[in-house]
Design a protein that fits this description.
The chain has about 140 residues and is an alpha+beta fold. The protein has four helices and five strands. A hairpin with a 5-residue loop joins strand 3 and strand 4. Helix 1 crosses helix 3.
Length: about 140
Amino acid sequence: MTDRPPSPNGATPVAPLVRTGRLVDLRRHIEANRESFIRWYADAEIARLLRHDLEPLSRRESVSYFTHIIMPLSGRGHCWAIHRRDTGQLIGTAAVTDVNAVRETCLYRIVIGEKDAWGHGFGTEATRLVALEVFATLP
């Protein structure tokens, strides 16, 4: 899939495009996503909605999670940044883990971290795009 080139003059970097939909694009994660990720995971409401995190993550925990889990998963094609198609804004993240090719199973998780993006179908479309990507590329 083609990607538009990075913005000139040192503007926000554009991550490699993986899949595109009507509402959202799935892209690889890049280091520039870290601050948004930290903000999302520090939010008490988001932490409450996540099954695995009952408390918000500290900055240190979020940095470690992003650096040691999210970035490697993204590099292997198992984690994606969710961007609004109309504005390019980073609004969330989705990942598959525990991929088992023999059983043909995996775990899926998604966070739409920008609350103003809730309830607009972005997560639904991102989930559809992730499913297409997983079935097309993972063993």
